[in-house]
Design goal:
Elements (H helix, E strand, L loop, with lengths): L1 E3 L5 H11 L6 H10 L1 E5 L5 E8 L2 E9 L8 H11 L7 E7 L3 H9 L3 E12 L2 E11 L6
Parallel strand pairs: 4-5
Antiparallel strand pairs: 1-2, 2-3, 3-4, 5-7, 6-7
Length: 145
């Protein structure tokens, strides 16, 4: 079941973020995202989350992760597809940034019609320096949402 993220989910969401991200969002960032975005979680015990921000006719996927114990089960695809379906009708384009090393996420995005638009050099912090980000986007048509 995919549902809206609630304040009581933040501890579980942060626990996933801390495991999957070399430079995790903070608890205050997640709390702020509840006020400014459409944030979703999977299941009663949070297995994954997505944070989407809409401005005018564009949306940005700001953060998304699946707990490592549940990766490879199609939950990321379900969560992203559900997030796209929930976008307001006026949204025409969806954008995201992804680490160049996150091959499984890039593959998922490509399967869902995202294309690479640009690259940001040294965008993400890593344990050993910096890593590039790919900027990806796709059009949202009326049939999708």
């Amino acid at each position: 079941m995919i549902r809206s993220m609630q304040p009581e989910d933040i501890d579980q969401v942060y626990a996933i973020e801390a495991v999957v991200s070399p430079s995790p969002w903070t608890v205050p960032q997640f709390l702020e995202s509840l006020q400014q975005s459409d944030s979703l979680v999977i299941e009663q015990q949070v297995r994954g989350y997505a944070v989407m921000v809409c401005v005018a006719d564009q949306a940005e996927l700001h953060n998304m992760a699946i707990h490592p114990d549940f990766q490879g089960q199609g939950l990321g695809r379900k969560l992203l597809e559900h997030s796209i379906e929930q976008l307001p009708e006026e949204i025409k384009n969806l954008y995201l940034e992804v680490r160049v090393s996150n091959i499984s996420a890039i593959r998922l995005y490509q399967q869902l019609d995202f294309v690479q638009l640009d690259e940001r050099r040294d965008y993400y912090a890593t344990a050993h320096g910096r890593e590039d980000a790919l900027i990806m986007g796709r059009q949202i048509d009326a049939v999708t949402n």
